[in-house]
Fold this sequence. Notes:
- The protein is built from 13 helices and 16 strands.
- It is of the alpha+beta class.
- It folds into three domains: about 105-185, Alpha-Beta Plaits, CATH 3.30.70; about 190-285, no CATH class; about 290-465, 3-Layer(aba) Sandwich (Aminopeptidase).
- Strands 9-10-11-12-13 form a five-stranded antiparallel sheet, with helices on both faces.
- Helix 6 packs antiparallel against helix 7 (about 205-215), helix 6 (about 190-200) runs parallel beside helix 8 and helix 9 runs antiparallel to helix 11.
- The chain is elongated.
Amino acid sequence: MTEVTKRARRTHHWRRDLVELAALFTAVAVADAVANMIVHGPDGRYLLVISAVVLTATAGFHTWWARRHSHAPPPAGAGTSTAGTRTAGTNASTPGTGTPAPETALWRMRTTVKDAPGSLALLCTALARHQVDILTLQTHPLAEGTVDELLLRAPATLQAAQLTREVAAAGGTDTWLERADAHDLVDAPTRVLGLATRTALDAAELPLALRQLLGRCTIHSLPATTLTGRPTGETAPVEGVLDGTVMKLRDPSGGAITIERHYLPFTPTEFARARALVELDARLGPRIPRSEDVLTLPEGNEITVRRAGLDDLAAARAMHDRCGDRTLSLRYHGPVGDADRYLSHLLSPRFGRTLAVQTASGRLVALGHLLWDGDETEVALLVEDAWQRRGIGSELLRRLVALAVEAGCESVYAVTQSSNTGMVAAMRGLGLPLDYQIEEGTLVVTARLAASTATVRPRPAQQAPAQAPARQPQTPAGRPQQR
Length: 483
């Protein structure tokens, strides 16, 4: 029991009870004397009736007056709050007035303030003067100050330049500001837990999770060895390295993961979160979600589309042996004998996602790759000779683009030869805006993923047009890029 509750209790005593009883008896005696005196008078009855009416009218008036003033609106200025706190009525209409709420915009802001008492209060006061509401606030302590990361709701009429000037006047330095959306309203712990869950379910999600965690950045996964088995010299210490706008972490599959963000330095808190995601991926080991879709081709054959990984390396090499030289040269743009060396890189979930097509007997007949290439995303397809021109390439391409949309990619590109009309037709079949770049017989087709997910939703194989498979090389140089 708290001290306030103890003090709120009143101590009852027998002397107080006696005083109350004496007052009650005295009041009854006085009322009886007055009543006897009035009743025995000539107009006693009329006086009692008039007194009752007057008392009733007085009680009614008092009740009406109390109710009216208890529901009266507050006086002017009662809704004004102190500096640094939310102002009443800024983002909502007043109940019963019908006044629409002012239009607002969300901003993400990061600024550095002195690590001194009152520095944050000055910043909040400057924002409050312009009716800016602070929705979330994270602090990143540094040796030379404190980095404050804020999610703001500001009037739509407030310009970014004016907001930056006000923050600078309040002592903020190295201020960075960009527009935000409703997804940024999720608090940081919830967002990190969601990214950790995605990483735990699929190893291919690690680069995407890092990008969503750190914002706009470039991620390169550099292997420890080349395709020929030679060391690349790309390593990182177990604890990682943080150097301003670049952080380097040890890749669980070997090599290093380099993350660059030139417009804004990384903080130790961001470095610790990224390292925790990488450590989680390392502890869980290789993993690929198992899901299969059974489709029927126009001629009646059934095929299964599923995720593929390093466990399918032997089956992929066997498919290479059944492919002709022209098919492999169109796909890899290099010596046909080097094709097998690329498979371990392409099938690794660290560098992207791979879809495999297998027949009812379990034979692998097609592969489709969605490869993370820094800020860009590449699609690459290979269909065995005997299974070409059945719509398998188009079906794989649509599914890969749907995965890219799900991953939040802005575009995907395919590198092929200008004579590969099947790949061009498959890209045009997506129904997305396309950009073409041709140089010395090499064609790069880029699809901008501005359309909805429904536009690139995989469709049943029997509805796919019977056309040449989408066969294309991964790079004009004929070997996978080192991501």
